[in-house]
Structure formats: C-alpha cells, structure tokens
C-alpha cells in the first residue's frame, strides 16, 4: 500500500519543553534555555531519519495581558532566535534539515536572505526558511509600529519579500568562483547578477554577498491557510505546514493548494503538504490516554482562558467556561487560526473549557492519542488518500514525546514501507524530493538566447 | 616587567583566506566558504587561549567598480554572515569568546539584540557584538537608501541603537524564571521590564523575548576612531579594535579614550583597547621578510589601485603609481580610515605603489615583520607603555599565519609572563577582566529605594 513508492516525510517540530502548554510542568520535560537540549532533540530526529528539525518563532513576549493572573504560568515567554540555534545545530549534525521561522513583517530581506544563505552553506545544503507574516499586536510595538500591520498589507509585503529574497539567492551562478590561484581570477563577473529590485515595499540593489546556496535556494516553507496565504504558498512555497482536523478537510486543502500550482507553472510534486500532528503514544490505548490526562491535569484554568485569547483574539473571561463558545467579533488575530479553533468548537460542540483543554496540546492541530499502530493507521490513511505528503510531529513533551514517537510509530511506519530507513540525498531538498531551482538570471539569459 | 600583573589580551581576527589582500592566491591558504575552516581557526585560537575569535562583516559585495579590470581578482566579494558562523562555532568550542560585527545602520535593534542574546545563551556567555556603522555606498543601496547615510546621522542612530539593545538585554532579571513545576509559576513578572523606548530613530516597546544573557550583556566592541566614534565608545564600548602605527599615536589614542570614560562614570579598566596587528613571523628576520615578499608578489597592481579607492574613497588610476599621493578631496568614505591611510603615506613619504603595497596586508593596521622575539618586543613595548591592553591578530594567511603566531609569538609572550596559559573565567567578559553590568531596571529600583 502506498503512493507509487512515495513515502511519508517527517518534520520534528521543536517547541521549548514540548507542544502541550503545560509540558514544562511535566517531570520528564527538558528546560527551554539550554543548547544541549536542542542538540539532543536534533540528534534523536536525525538518528530516526526525519527530514528536518523545525523551529517556530515569535518576536515578542507571548501571552502578555493587562491582567497578569495567567501570565506567570506560561512558557513561551522567551524563545531563542531560530537562526542562531539552527546554525549551532548545523555544526553538530550532518544530514537532517534545519528549518527556521522568520517573519517578513519585521525583518529586512537583504539581512534575512544572507543569514539563510549562510546557514545553507554552513550546513552543506540543509537550510529551510519558514516564511511567515506577524499579526501579534505586541510584536508590532517592538518594531516602531503603533498597531498591528493589517492582514492584506502583511501579505503584499510577504509576496514582495519572497521575490527579493529568492532573487538575492541567485546573485551568483553556481560556478561563479573559479578561485584560480595561478591566473589570479577569483570571481567570474559574468556570473554575478544585480537584482535591482524596486517595488512598493522594498528597494534592494544586490548582489547578495554570499555565494549561491548549495541547494540553489534554501527550502521555502509556509504555514498560511488564508486565501492570500494559499496564493503566496502556491507561487513560492515548497513545503506547507498546515493544520486540518479531518480527512475530508485535509483532502480539500490538499487538492485546493496543489490545484493552484499549475497556474504558476509548477507541478504538484513541487510542493509538499505536511500538517502538524500532536501524537500521544502509549503501549496500550489506556496508557496513551493516561499520559494525555496527566498533561491535561497540569493545565491551569487561567492558562486555558489566556490560550483562547491568543488563538481567537478575543478575551472570553467572564463567559461561563462550561457554556458554548459565543459568536466572535472580527479581530486582527490571524483569521485562519481563529477560524480553525472556532470551527473545532462548533463541529464537536465543545464548551469553552473543553475547547481550551482540546487545544492546549496541539493548539488547533491534529491530535492523536493511541498505540503506535493506531497512530500509524491514521497517518497512513491521510497519506495514501492524498490528505498529506508528510507530517510535522509536535511531541507533547520533549524529549520524551519525541522518543515515544520514534520508538513506537517510526518502526510501525517502516514495517509498512511508509518511511525511509536511510537518507536518500545529501541536502534537505533532495530528501524532500524537491527539485533544485534554476538560477533566475541564468534562465533569463538562456531564454533570451533561445 | 608588566603592568601590575595585568596581561595582554588577544583576539583572533578571522578574514577569509587571510588578511593580506592576495592571501587567497597563497598555496597554503584555506578557502573562504567552508565551515570546517572556520572551525579549525577557532579551535586553534582556543587551544592557544586567545580571548576571542573576531569576525568582520560587510553588507554588500565589496570592491565593486564600474571598470571591472580589478574586480575579478578580489576576495572579500562574499562573506558568510557572522552570527550564523559564530553560532556554529559556539557548538564546537567551549571557552573562546565569539565576537561578530553587525551594523547599526542597516539592522533592526530588536532582531539584533535577540540574536546576540541567543548567541550568548547558546555559547554559555561567550558572545561579543562589534557595533559598527556602515558607510559603503553600495551597502546603502541594498537597504532602500538612494545614497549613503551621512556620518553624523549614522552616529546618532548608533547611539540610540546601542541604548535600545542594552535596554532590551535587561528585559528580565537574572533570576526572573523560577520555573517551579509544583506551583506552576514559570516566570516572576516583577522581574520582567518593559523598555518603552521612544527616540528620534526607534520606537521599541519590549520586553525582549529572550532571558537576560549569561554575561548580563554580550561584550560591546567598537572600532570607530573619529570624534563621534570615540565618544560613542567611551559611553558604551568595552573593547575597542583600533589601528595605530606608532607608539606615540597609540599612547595618544589610549589616553584620549580612557580619559573620556570618567565623564560617563566609568573606570579605565572598563574598556580594553586592542589595536589590530598584522604579524609576519619567521625563524629569522630574513625568513619573515621572504614570507612577506612572497605575498606581496601575489598582489596584482589593479587590485592595489582598487584597494586605495576603497580605503580613501578616491579613484587614483591615471596618477603616476611611482609619484606621491595627491591631495585628497573630502568624500563620504570613513573619515578616520581615509586619514589613517593618507597620514601613513605622508609620514613615510610613500609613492602610490608603495602605499598600496604597504596596506595590502594590514590595511592601515600595524604591520610587524620579524622573528617571534622581535614581534613580542614590539607588543610588549606597546603594552607596558599603555599604548594597548591587547591586540587583535590579523594573520597574513589562514590558517598558516595564525599557526606561525601561536607557535612562535605566544610562547615568547608566556616566557615574559605577558600572556595566560589557562583561561581565568568561564565567560568572555570574565576572561577580558570586564565587570558584569547591573540590570538597568534593577538599578533604578534599587536607587529609588535608597
């Protein structure tokens, strides 16, 4: 059973002590401020032949609120910056991909293009950029804005940002540096390209002062599920980390996004769709449920309300926690995230309390509690029915939850010939089965000559 | 002989294949695009107990010129981004400091504060930030500017930038994270501080979403020798990398900058002055000279003219290479750099050719060609006579030139009890003998309570 020899791709999504909001209180969970814990995580994932480590990011202290009641109980207050962490991991791993989140809303395209190009060189072609826009009101205040950047403007900027960055990565041909000691020719200037970008948001001349990355371009990853998010992804993304609860939703999203690729001259295999999965693995179903219950018991109610405020953009304190979710006003919160969480409540008829308990782990992502075979069944079903090309594993606790997945679910997937036993390629791009992009300037010249 | 038990500090300045412009053509020089060469360099320097590795930076393709004659022969066209390289080095070294250059002209203070704070955590307190302003006309074009940012404005921005970054590093008290699993208290909000900065260049609310760095603040390094540069350094820098040719000049600079500290409530030992040194070490003077001659012979004349154009901001092609340096017009080039190079030509009565040959190695820094004892004599003289607190070693070729220094000059300095045999502290700050800064918010509260 399978998809013509295709196999599942796996990302290992690192998040502080684990993805469950209360994970930091779990006795086995790692702290969140030591490089050694990141290194252990990356090495575990590499030994298991995951495609990549994935780091989320934010550019503000999350979960701030004028009423401090819940704040003191939150992790996610601080987070090391992904490019620095991934660069450190590059030096102590050799095969696993290194995907980091960086915002187009509050970064500069030249600096960002350069850092990801450097990471790609340092890692020998293992870098990936998770291109996001930032909607957090607190983040805007850290970058000179009086209020959040509106959704449409964020996506216009992101579109242009992606073009600038990809253009800068093509500043040199792959063979632009003869470094010929005898003749004294270091660089072949015919193979240096000036971008000369002028747009609504950016004016960037180039060239980038880093050679073309080993992968041509670091792999571009996106997560947006809104309409402009899907359009941006169809044009520029090579991996989508997304969140769908049901097979039908996943299939609809998969078909929608893959269908958009043609308009941009791309084939369906040029974009891999990898939803987030929050797996709680037990030797029995009862053990899995007990593990999950133990984590839920660590969740403090005020943290639950705060979590909903962040996901929905609405403060629900004062509402009856055992009543239904009220109608929500339009907010500046991420529209796709609000819809995802609100739809979950309505579909499953959840009270406010049940809703926050439900999203405390997977935060709107797909949650699977069961044996390794149960979870492999679910992943297989979604994969073979074209609901996903792979999954981004959001372990409930770290490193314990990842080890559970690696020791239980990975061998089960291998028995079904659904996951690799050895890396196929040297680069992240090769392992994901993505083509190496042609240099846009070389392409223009080639086309002009034809 | 010495300075009351004080010893010389040493930085290992990494620059592609070496600091001599023609180093890349030398048969022993490393390439400039492989992490392994950076790792080897850092480990050599760490084994020799250098205080820090130092990485320069630029944010454009250097040495561009409308006439391409010289360009193809240049290294320095590309350069990995320092924060990514240093983060990788953090994972494979354990004691040496990691100092990286980042521009205040074209970076954002929140992102930069966060990356250096992350590097400080990842490295266990070994990060240093070389705070620079950027005057390159080509760099400005990569960041939306139509022309270079004027000198005065760059320094006003740098002043404010430094205040924002240092304020953000103080966003949390050193003990702000009890992470008490039992009670569920993760963060002590009394120890979280909102910067709320509003100035002429930046509006940044904070807090930074990284815990306070292990060093309190990464060590702040500067290089400016202009009047506003010296003032900025006297207020904010803890190390100055500078360039003086003669003992008298070095003493004047040393006294000038140290004298300014008092006005800012600082003691002379709070700032270490470490001029760049370009050492060519031989077992005999003749061997040292032969090594240097071998490098000079690799220097192509068109590269020499191009080098002068970059250093002086003036294109001298057409002038007689064997004639004197003409009077120079005021330019937008770094005023201190232009003065440094022009003064050298006039003091030593150099022709244009002699000048470019002279700066091809040290690029205006102090150049020493001789035996290990000769070079140690010079360093000792400058150190004991308060012309320097240490030196930033700019090896002619890498790694060969650094190995020559480590095998020859370092033991000679140790014989004179002028250099350590073991690290004194765990952090860069401790090894440099710098105090750990008090948190500015904690200080304000303490002072208010007194």
Automatic annotation (TrEMBL), chains A, B:
Coiled coil: none annotated. Keywords: Flavoprotein, FMN, Monooxygenase, Oxidoreductase. It is an enzyme of class 1 (oxidoreductase). Pfam families: Bac_luciferase (PF00296). Its EC number is 1.-.-.-. Residues 13-389 form the Luciferase-like domain. GO terms for molecular function: oxidoreductase activity. It comes from the Bacteria. Transmembrane segments: none annotated. NCBIfam families: FMN_nitrolo (TIGR03860). Belongs to the NtaA/SnaA/DszA monooxygenase family. This is LLM class flavin-dependent oxidoreductase.
